[in-house]
Amino acid sequence: MVQRWEAGVTTSPRPVYARALEQVTGLPIEALGFAAPIPLGEVADDGRGGHDMTVAAKEAAASPVAHGHRANHSGIWLSRYEYFSSGRGAAFVGLHHVVVLQHGSRLTVRSLPGSSDSSLIMDLVIDGTVITGTWTEETARDSYYQGARYHGAIQLLAEPTGRRMVGKWVGFGKEFDVNTGPWQLVFRDASTAKAAVERYNHRPQE
Hints:
This is Transcriptional regulator, XRE family. The chain has about 210 residues and is of the alpha+beta class.
């Protein structure tokens, strides 16, 4: 199967494999060189992909449209959080352009490599307008934090417009103290195609 993908024989993996590839790589399937999976309404009744489409239909039925916000949060977002550096005695802002991929109630968030010297990963679960999960950030080796890896928890609220998620992060500091601060994700683009990813693969500005 992988050989067929690499050779270009299979240009559109079945949805279950597309979801697995997105989960493993943290990138949308289009950015990996594939065509988008076959839409639900275009699947022939020939026994192929039936289970995948049934799962997709159930996920769509359980989507949070009724709660008044975006049915799917997949797209490009601006991640902005604030933190206090005890070593430097000042407050700072962390900015990343991130790709958000939603499968059912799960959101995976991965920063674009060109948007910051540090890499950011978030694994979230959405329940109505409440989004809860974990975050991990690995700093650059030549930065002030010298390649340190930080992680913690986060909880956000999705605004009814679907264009912003606002909340707070929590994590441990060097002195085993618990730190916290504001965090928000601001919607930028619904597309996760390769062109959109390349367009936002740069350092964001406030």
